[in-house]
Amino acid sequence: MSAADGGYNFAYLDEQTKRMVRRALLKAVAVPGCQIPFASREMPLPYGWGTGGIQVTAAVIGREDCLKVIDQGADDTTNAVSIRRFFARTAGVATTERTDEASIIQTRHRIPETPLTAAQTLVYQVPIPEPLRRVEPSERETRRMHALADYGAMRVLLYEQIARRGRVTQSYNYPVMVNGRHLMSPSPIPRFDNPKLHRSPALQLFGAGRERRVYAVPPYTDVVPLDFEDYPFTVESWERPCELCGAADSYLDEIVTDDAGTRLFACSDTDYCARRRAGEPREVQA
Q1: Model-level pTM?
Q2: Which domain holds residue 275?
Q3: Catalytic residue among 92, 242, 261, 279, which?
Q4: Which domain of life is it from (predicted)?
Q5: Catalytic residue (one of 33, 52, 207, 209)
Q6: CATH code assigned at 188
Q7: Options 50, 52, 207, 267, the catalytic residue
Q8: Burial class (CB in 10 A: 0-12, 13-18, 19+), 117
Q9: Is 34 a catalytic residue?
Q10: What's the chain's average pLDDT?
C-alpha cells in the first residue's frame, strides 16, 4: 500500500491539490502572518488530528526529505506515530525522531528545544487560526479588524486579565504581531515557545484543515508577543529542573506516575531529553 506499490499518489494528495496548497502557501509567505484561504480536502483521519498540517506537509515534502513528527513535544504519541507512518507509507520518505536530522518537522503544540536551521521547515497543526475569535465571534468582523489592524480588543482582553489576576494568564496560544502588521495565532504552543518564533532561520508554515486557512512566518521575520510597557511579556518557569536529564532550560510536563499521585517533572521534548541523557553536546539557541 506504499507509494512505490502504486496504492497512493506521492504523499497521498493528488498533484492538482498540492499545487493549490502551494499557491496558498506562497501567498502566505508573501504576507507574513496573514491568513490565506485554501480548499481543504478530506483526509483519512478526523478533524482535530492535524488535517491542515498534513495537507501542508504533503504539499511541500519531496522524495529526499526526512520527516519528523511531534505531538506535545513527544515523538511516541499516537498522533505523532500515526502521521509519521502515514507519510512513510504514502510518500516513502525517510523519518526520524532527531530534530537535527529532519528537513521537515510537523508539530502539534510545541517547538523543538533544539535550535532550528535555515534548511528546515516547521509545519504546525492549527485548530483555530483566528486570534481574534476570543474577542469577536463574527468572521466578517475579524476580517475587517485585520484589514484595519484594529487590534485594540485583544489588548483589552490582556488588560482585563492583569486587572483581575495581576498578570496575563494566557498560558498558550499567546497572540503575536508578525512583521509589525498582522496579529497571528501561534497555534496552541505554550507561551514558553513564543520567543523561538522571533527571527527563526526556519520557514514556519501553519495549516488549519477544518477552518481552511494557511499562514506563514518566513525565515528571520520579527514575531513579537503583545504586551505592555509596565507588564512585559514573560515565559513560564519551574522551580526544579527536569528529573530525567537535569535540564533547567526546557519546557516541562507534569506526569502522574502512580495511583498515590506522585508527580514527575520531565522535558516535554523527548528527543532533547534523550540526547541530554545520552551525553550528547548541547546546541545553544541563537
Answers
A1: 0.93
A2: 237-279
A3: 242
A4: Bacteria
A5: 33
A6: 3.40.50.11310
A7: 267
A8: middle
A9: no
A10: 93
98 shares its domain with 201: yes
pLDDT of residue 179: 97
If asked whether residues 181 and 61 sit together in one domain, one would say yes
Tally of domains in the chain: 2
Question: Would 157 be classed as within a structural domain?
Answer: no
Q: Are 65 and 21 in a shared domain?
A: yes
As a whole number of angstroms, the distance between CA 208 and CA 19 comes to: 17
Active-site choice (34, 152, 245, 279): 245
Say whether both 210 and 255 belong to one domain: no
Which of 76-85, 261-270, 275-284 bottoms out in mean pLDDT, i.e. has the lowest?
Answer: 275-284
The pLDDT value recorded for residue 279 is 86
33 flagged as catalytic: yes
190 and 255 part of one domain: no
Query: What is the spatial distance between Cα 185 and Cα 172, in angstroms, rounded to a whole number?
Result: 10
Residue 245 among the catalytic residues = yes
Q: Are 153 and 132 in contact (CB under 8 A)?
A: yes
What does the DSSP 8-state code read for residue 142?
A: H
**Interacting residues of 6 by C-beta distance below 8 A, sequence separation 6+:** none
Q: Where are the alpha helices (DSSP H) in the chain?
A: 15-30, 51-60, 78-90, 139-147, 152-165, 194-197, 270-277
Distance of CA 171 to the CA centre of its chain: 15
